């Protein structure tokens, strides 16, 4: 059963350039007739959450807002007309609450938890019954909470346009949540995976996770060409999970094969307004590849992903250091430093 009050995070406007993150005590919500009340056990952080706090998030945002899109918990109450869930069901949140199937639209993009709508960093949250997906039976709450943004984004990148096939090749950049999920999903599909990192310690971990080749981009500044040279016939990879952005796009483009896909997912390497040495749209034509922007995924895609996570017993990589909701600011700072390995998780129960 829920209590009358709860603790939640809150992001509000701080000044013209940044926002502020606070923790507050509020009343516990009551579900409407088509809503479900979820006791949230775990929340995982994404680069998106850091951008929102910093004030440089480039998409729809309604402040003040409860932060975070990723949550896993248990249903504790349901509305009178709810048919999909029962109390006791273990669930995870759908980031874009109205993106049920098919391509994303401007309308579905505005329904993002932690941006356009109140998110998951709260002990209890109400969600439309369609805005939840069954949590994988083989995962803990902490593990399951990591699937909602990074997990389904990498799934969409691998299967949303040209579905990955056994024997094909994928390049993942670094050790972000999206990159690690892409590595795990690609290996489960029988693909060959190339990975980049600047850390020998992380390189060893990437190999343990199944990466076939790991290249240190700090030592090899032409890592894109190096990856291409390692592929059969030096043809390049079928899909690049491009999370680096402005400072990595040029090398990623060198690695992708003719009619391959470069899945553009973020810009962790630099501000998105940097334009030096950034490839143009014409490069897609000149090099005959597809550059595709990927923004999370639909409920249908999440359900497909959960099926594979269970069938192949895939366990997301969670950072060894965990945080409570009272340590929210420390969790955000830890995630921003990038000193850990795997997803940063805040436990609420």
UniProtKB/TrEMBL annotation:
SMART domains: PKS_ER. It comes from the Eukaryota. GO terms for molecular function: oxidoreductase activity. Residues 17-346 form the Enoyl reductase (ER) domain. It holds the Pfam family ADH_N. InterPro entries: ADH-like_C, ADH-like_N, ER, GroES-like_sf, NAD(P)-bd_dom_sf, Zinc_ADH-like. This is Enoyl reductase (ER) domain-containing protein. The lineage of its organism: Eukaryota, Fungi, Dikarya, Ascomycota, Pezizomycotina.
